[in-house]
Specification:
Elements: E1 10-12, E2 18-20, H1 49-56, H2 61-106, H3 108-125
Antiparallel strand pairs: 1-2
Length: 126
């Protein structure tokens, strides 16, 4: 039985230097690479029907470009205005409810009578 390690080989590299054979880099094995699939997802192009009709009717391209540019801006501005008005209406309703609640609870019999009168007035208006 031989318990001695295997003798280490010394090899000469192509550049002329010597190295131990167990320190050589392992050869690169060709491993099949996964196929890369490039998928391009695009948005649908904007509808240009209005622009085509406008250009066909004789107005200039500058007018069409202005409509294309300012149209979405106008929609955004009107949406912002509508949102602000909705918020103000909500705040007005909450404030009115708060005032009525305070008048009912603090006003005693006079406050309750005023609330009833206000409720009757509202019913008559409908």
């Amino acid at each position: 039985m031989n318990h001695l390690p295997e003798p280490v080989r010394v090899v000469q590299l192509p550049d002329g230097t010597y190295t131990y054979a167990d320190h050589l880099p392992t050869p690169i094995q060709s491993v099949p690479m996964p196929q890369v699939i490039h998928q391009h997802i695009h948005q649908a192009p904007p509808d240009r029907t209005v622009q085509r009709i406008a250009l066909g009717s004789g107005i200039g391209a500058g007018t069409v470009a202005a409509g294309v540019y300012f149209g979405p801006l106008l929609v955004g501005a009107l949406t912002a205005i509508a949102a602000n008005l909705a918020l103000l209406a909500f705040l007005a309703a909450v404030m009115a409810w708060g005032v009525v609640s305070v008048v009912k609870s603090v006003g005693g019999p006079d406050g309750k009578a005023a609330a009833k009168t206000l409720a009757r007035t509202r019913r008559k208006g409908k």
